[in-house]
Specification:
145 residues; mainly alpha; two-stranded parallel ribbon; two-stranded antiparallel sheet; 4 strands; globular
């Protein structure tokens, strides 16, 4: 969901992952559109398909997050940003946010993702992924037909 946020602050020990494919699923919440737009296709593909994690510094370097903040200061930093936004002209903030998003494109992508997500959730691959998780073992997709 952080891809839908206007400002993102991460703690210094944050590790961001996209576990969809590892669970035999597909991206959701329009992340198949927003993540490649934010960090590029190759990086997004590695996160989605290879399950590569991104640490806090990488998240900032790649444009996923605005800043790395010590965990103890995270709430205060987010509050200070919220207060700074609240002090700005509300209509200009609202219109700027609206101009920066394409709600129709996001909704359309969410609908497409939802169809694929639901189908994958019922798949033999997902059954194997979830069974392996419960049994605390690596999934074996070679046996899935």
């Amino acid at each position: 969901m952080l891809l839908h946020c206007d400002l993102v602050f991460v703690s210094d020990d944050a590790l961001l992952t996209t576990p969809f494919v590892n669970l035999a699923l597909v991206p959701e919440a329009a992340s198949s559109l927003t993540l490649p737009a934010r960090i590029g296709h190759a990086r997004a593909f590695a996160m989605f398909v290879l399950g590569e994690a991104v640490d806090a510094k990488q998240a900032v370097d790649w444009g996923i997050a605005n800043a790395v903040v010590p965990r103890a200061d995270l709430r205060a930093r987010a509050r200070a940003a919220a207060d700074a936004i609240a002090a700005r002209p509300a209509s200009a903030v609202r219109l700027t946010k609206a101009l920066m998003r394409d709600p129709a494109a996001l909704a359309a992508r969410m609908e497409i993702e939802g169809v694929h997500f639901a189908a994958q959730l019922r798949s033999a691959e997902a059954k194997e992924a979830f069974t392996a998780f419960v049994e605390k073992r690596a999934p074996d997709f070679s046996r899935v037909v």
